[in-house]
Amino acid sequence: MSSRFGPPPVQAPPSVTTSFSDLLAAAAHGARQLEGDGVLSLAVPLPGRDPLALLPQLEEGERFRFLWDSAPGLCLAASGRTNSLELSGPRRFELAQRFSAVSLSRLASPQACPPLARPRILLAFSFFDSPLQEGEGVPGVQAVLPRWQLSRQGRHCWLRLQRSLGGEVTARSIAEELWEQARLLNTLPAEPQAGSGRSRGPGLHSRSPWHSGYRRAVEQGLALVESGTLRKLVLAVRQQLLLDAPLDPLTLLAQLRQSQSGSCRFLWQQGDGSALLGASPERLLTVRQGQLRSDALAGTAPIGPGADQLLHSDKDRREHELVVEAITAVLRQAEL
User: Fold this and answer.
1) Are 148 and 78 in contact (CB under 8 A)?
2) Across the strands, what pairs with 275?
3) What is the Cα–Cα distance from 284 to 287, expressed in whole angstroms?
4) What pTM did the predictor assign?
5) What is the DSSP string of 204-248?
6) Within 13 Å of residue 126, how many CA atoms lie on the same side as its CB?
7) Which helix (H) or strand (E) holds 275?
8) Considering just the CA atoms, what is the radius of gyration of the chain in Å?
9) pLDDT per position as a tens digit, 150-165
10) Helix axes 171-186, 20-34, angle to 10 degrees
11) 335 phi and psi, to 5 degrees?
């Protein structure tokens, strides 16, 4: 892995030039900034690669992996933990923000990179401050500064490695590890199709019953709304499915990319095998160039109706109005 073997250059977009000697110089500069104590974050550009398809190549025994896939917009894959935080309680948002600020303040990223390639703190919040049952459920917040980060937007793609300096981990070893991984990814097909050519996936062996409990919940919910106790109520069903074979989350996400192309696909997978994944058409909020945007949807309809039918549905329009009112009230309370 040493530079004396003359590693082949990583192909970069025309506007970017890089070499292994440039990477070593940046690593040395970052180490001097940290004075040998902190996280060194280095990045190299790659030809267009699909982070969803290449996420397994970034694992190398890592016990955490993440995906945010809004392709053809930003697609971000990450694995491993350089720094992490898990906690519960009413101050979880405040403490997560503090963790993010402290982690980034102790990180040196000595190279000029586009916004898509910047170091990121990954965050996952549960609906509640604490698990509903002691010792079970997810914590109130999980925050991760990943070890590997592969991001792509349009035709631009960057690979980033973040390691804490100390012991056998030096600026040079980080540069060599990043360069070798980039070289490996560079040998793979430009656009491997994640999940292509595979079967439809495992079959359903059994599922937990839910109909009777849901009917009772609907009856109670209607009574609460009609009595004026509640104005809005959202009911959900929890099911346990037993499959006849293991399920690969990345295969499922690749299929969702094709069948739900207007959605944002996501994955948050822990080392114990548990995974949160989905494909959402909604956007809680984004802040860009001083503008806040929220795309929230409400309503319930069977598969099939076109957009015009939903727009003229009095029921669905009322449900969406409640969501707009709730979001507006929160923004007004925050003086936005």
Assistant:
1) yes
2) 269
3) 11
4) 0.84
5) EEEE---HHHHHHHHHHHHHHHHTTS-S---------EEESS---
6) 18
7) strand 275-280
8) 23
9) 999 999 999 999 999 9
10) 140
11) 60, 40
